[in-house]
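FAQ: What does a ligand-bound record look like?

Like this one, built around flavin-adenine dinucleotide:
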Amino acid sequence: MRNFSYQAVERVDSAVARHTEFATSAFLAGGTTLIDLIKLDVMRPEQVVDVNRLPLKRIDLLDDGRIRIGALVSNTELAHHPLIRARHPLLSAALLSGASTQLRNMATTAGNLMQRTRCAYFRDPTVPECNKREPGSGCAALTGINRLHAVLGTSEHCVATHPSDMCVALAAIEGAVEVEGPAGKREVALLDFHLLPGDTPEREHALEADELITSVVLAPHLDSAGAHYLKLRDRASYEFALASCGVILALDGQRIGQVRIALGGVATKPWRAFEAEASLVGVVPGRESFEQAARLALAHARALEHNAFKLPLARQAIVRALETALDDAQGGMSPPARSDTGAGSPAGDSP
Amino acid sequence: MTVEALNQRTARIDGELKVSGGADYAGDHQLPGMLHGYPVVSPVASGRLERLDFDAAMGAPGVVEIIHGGNFPRLNRSPDSMAEENKVGEVRLPFEDDQIHYHGQYLALVVADSFEHARAAARLVSIEFSCAPAVAGLSSAGEGREVDDEAVTLGEPARALAAAEVRIDAEYRIATEAHAVMETHATLASWQDDRLTVYESTQGVVFHRNALAQVFAMAPEQVEVIAHYIGSGFGSKLFMWPHSVITCAAARLLGRPVRTVLPRQWNFANTGHRPASLQRVRLGADRDGKLQAILHDALNETSPVEAYSDSCASATPSMYACDHVAVTQRIAEVNHGTPTSMRAPGEASGNFALETALDELAVELGVCPVELRRRNFTVRDPASGLPWSSNHLLECFDDAAGRFGWERRDPTPRSMRDGHELIGYGMATQSWSAMRKHCTARASFLADGRLSIATGTQDIGTGTYTIVAQTASQLSGVPLDRVEVKLGDSQLPAGPLSGGSMATASTLPAVAGAVREAIATLQRLSIGEGGRFEDAAPSALEFRDGRLWHGDESASVAELLQTLERGSVDAVVSTAPGDEQKRASFRSFGAVFVEVRWDPGISRLRVARVVSTIDGGRMINPLTAHNQLEGGVVMGLGMALFERLEYERDGRLHNHNFADYIVPVHADMPEIELVTLDYPDLAFNEFGARGVGEIGLTGVGAAVSNAVFHATGKRIRELPIRLEALLEE
Ligand SMILES: Cc1cc2nc3c(=O)[nH]c(=O)nc-3n(C[C@H](O)[C@H](O)[C@H](O)COP(=O)(O)OP(=O)(O)OC[C@H]3O[C@@H](n4cnc5c(N)ncnc54)[C@H](O)[C@@H]3O)c2cc1C
Ligand code: SF4
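The answer part, i.e. the structure of the complex:
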């Protein structure tokens, strides 16, 4: 841990203003990623701007059916909010499958969007090669232990997964990230927010320098859709996904009207399987079409030495999530979050 | 004396202190003027240290000194003797040479005025080294060398194997496992002239004291090691590790107390681990399943600086009725930190291999796995030729199988289903040897009427404080809350290590002896001159319910002492095992049954139920005993499905933290039903207790892998079983 200066701010504009004062500043929300990485000497901000007192803790239903979530709404509050449970059970389920109760109580919506990869080489500064940490230094994961790494959206410079569960649900739901910076306010589409590593893996998101996330706005929910979040992992709780899949599926009579398929644990950013979705629209759902969609979703996947199992595993996650979401859709009314988080007993992940 | 009353579920007497934060662990202690140590460690697994540059670090805020090979005092290696009770985890002294043997090896200790300053400065030390090729793991370590005194041969195993009608020959692998203790290792050392006081998280204050005395060339009496509470050890805290020596030396060099709380990640490198193992088991049997030959050859990793043998096959000759048995043990050097005992050392690993091989034999023969084990039950210990002191394994099979519902098992793999899930049933025999060591205890009746017991063993969280109090209360009639127990200090009368499931059997006889002796002394004094019952006949006195009775008249301990004008009456008694080991073999047994559920559609394996029935002698405190057994099952599930210390191709540690080293969490926990048969083993000690710290873990790995075979039809011979081993497409 290195010394840094600490500022607590009360207003959005002063948060941004403070942030500009140092070359390397970091906003502090729940701290569950930031403090961890500072202690590990991976993030080395000269200044920490504590944003916890900003008035960004509301969840509002907008007139057009969208829902605005303040940047500082905790993962726990978001997961249990009646609006979210009723209209976006996928989000609720994804949140509750993540981390632990204590962490979710601290973790915020913006912090979750901005959480860093769990790549062990990224998190260990005694490992010299990590392009994300030290641009141009190489990538230890390519030849190292890469069982947990990505198979989609990778580049020769970085193969780290985006670890968030929440963001997988957001990718399926769609919407926008509202930000405020020195140049004023703007909006970034959720699907454009996270970046592929390409040859700049140190650039993970679309924020410009000193921009603060103020809220996330969810697109209106699909009527009478079924949803399911399935997270497969090494243990039943308190563990990141090896592969996860979030599905929202709405029927149009006997056929699939709309479907969204998002993947986690296998890709370098929260991943939408557009081709797979397209293959299902207008189709009478069934095992075969689901398997075909799953194959399409992984068609461009590239395995590394230790993670080839993620291809079939992700396909399995997709098929099962589709099947369960279909059940859910056929079950009629959208029930409270149906989640399958890998826990032997669901109590493991309830607050 | 009515021993039955001991057999009570009794909540830990130190429980309140622990949950309220009042229990003082090694790293909690502060001393005036105390400094903080933070280690600088090798970033590579093999090579030579060329140079350490301390310029930046020495100039960092708060830094007082950096301890390293250049300023480290000349010390002595400990003789490393179990018999002399100075065994250490690693004999090599810190900074002894510039050879780098493993990732995480100590190169220096930064000492500063705060933990944060020491840590920040440690990162500023620049390390120049040259790399050498590393042996990264057991699979590239070759055949290693045989551990001579561990080979056992009964009969003519090779010939019997060749002649057998049915044979099994298979290899089993277990990954390196970490103890993953919750309380990190910690040392606080302070010197007063030529006396050394050390707060250490240790499972053996006496061993630790003796080892330090050897290293610093002092008399044991000059060293005091204190460990009032320990946040689990699982074997990693049995024997001294280098951080303790470095910290003591630093404190002496600087003339101030120094505390080193080992960073979490270096607990994974420098304080032992269960070594990776590779085992070959060959079984020969006749068509009825009677075992004709057992050949069990084990290989475990050790470090370049220590010849650690895990003795994986040591229990094999004792397990079943078989006249032809051969076991061997080899060790191979790997550039990893030094391994050490980890809960049920050796036997947990060996059991996995043997009990999985037996399942394979059962499948081959088409015999029920329980029936196969019954047919090979042995009424005496084939290893020693002696009868068992007390062995109710057959009842364990019946009891556990009944509770589990084993009769519902359709032996055909993949035949039992529930929705998406395939159900598998598996079982294994559990076992752990019974050991007992010498122990000295002091019992003191105090002026306020309390009874104080002191012995230099320690409570590693298992409940030793409580069972000592129960025993003293039982024998004296002094209520439990009026019994004080002092443990965890090497100045106390010497007690045993907390390891090997022997603390109970070793400690309680000494405690009982001391209490009885104290009562006798109190009686003797009370009929002597100036006593409460002066001149009464000894036979007319009775000590009951914490009072001394003479006919209808009685006096409390406090009154007796007041009359005698004494502050206390003490007795010190030593006990040791007798020659019972010449007459019988002592071993605990059990049976564990596991139900797994495998969802092939999403490659999800989970353990749904565990039932285990244990014949472990009498349970002094069923509450803490069951807690130990349950903890053993949890750790066994960790071994079966989760735990695996990973190393890079060049031998560096990869997952040396609690995020990446996966231990089971609550959500992984199945229903666990535990039964103890409670037959006292009175030939072993007067309380009939054998100890239950480790047996719960044994058998779980095999029972899980056998259940996995039943569920999936796949025989997995490697632990942990990860989903990619089972994935079906
Ligand atoms: C042990 C452990 C297990 C976990 N398991 C899971 C899991 O299974 N699934 C999962 O999805 N997540 C998991 N997480 C991650 C967790 O969800 C994130 O750490 C958390 O969401 C981060 O939120 P925070 O508010 O604590 O962010 P902080 O740590 O405060 O900040 C994280 C980053 O976001 C930046 N930031 C914060 N607020 C803003 C803002 N308003 N505008 C711009 N930048 C901002 C910070 O500067 C920092 O870079 C786990 C974390 C831990 C420690
Ligand atoms: S995968 Fe990315 S984060 Fe991991 S080592 Fe490579 S560059 Fe760094």
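Follow-up question: can I read anything off the structure? Yes, for example: Chain B has a mean pLDDT of 96.
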